[in-house]
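protien #1 (seq + structre)
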Amino acid sequence: MTLMDVLVDFARTGRIGALRCGMPLAEAENLLGPGRPHPAIRLLGPDIDGYPYSWGGLDLVVTRRTVDGIRINLWPGSTVKLPSLVLPDSESSEATVLREGLLAALDAAGCEHHVNDTLTFGEQSSVLTRPADVCAVFSLPGRDDHVPHRDRHYLDVMHKRVDLAGPTP
């Protein structure tokens, strides 16, 4: 399995293997091992909502000790470390994913995607997949990013978020 396979599967299903929004954090930690909590969680305690637990390039955002967001963070021109549950047989993978390459892979997999106008502006572009509602955000490389094409958009993050809090009374 390659990083591209993981990204396409996430875009199609909204899941990464057994990881899904709505699962208890304890269940995710049983699968992945203990995560590295965001500094706000360390400072204010485990009941603070909306902050991620991290496993290398994988973040799980937590509300009421339930996963309400999944995020894969990439740094074009470098490598990304993902847990073996996410990317089996690989401790790290090349993190340089061109926008055109991901969109072609989504098309080949029959994964519908549309421009996400909310996150497409300036030097950034974004797509939203259907029916999984996974968002992919691309940007031009930064000054220190070692990439072959300085004028093309690279994947920075793929994420899915659900509202577990519900409407405010």
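ok now protien #2
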Amino acid sequence: MLAQEMGVILTKHAGLMTAKRWVEFIEQLERKGLYVVIESDTNGRVMSPFGGLMPMPCKTDSFNLLNAEELEARGLSVGHHVLAKCSLKPS
């Protein structure tokens, strides 16, 4: 299947995904040594459901899957990150 086709499918299914199903999906990535890094152009902040502040979602957010070596090369700890492109600090 082409990336464009999968993109259309994921767009249609994303609205139906529960938080639990997203957690299961992210855990599958972790087992494969992959971590989600979201970079946002916004400097606005919203509260994370688990405490702390993170950039507000915006249409120009970029999503990347990185392994531990790629995270280290960017100065990030192993794990998932939401970054504001203007400051590039983990939230």
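The first helix runs from residue 3 to 14.
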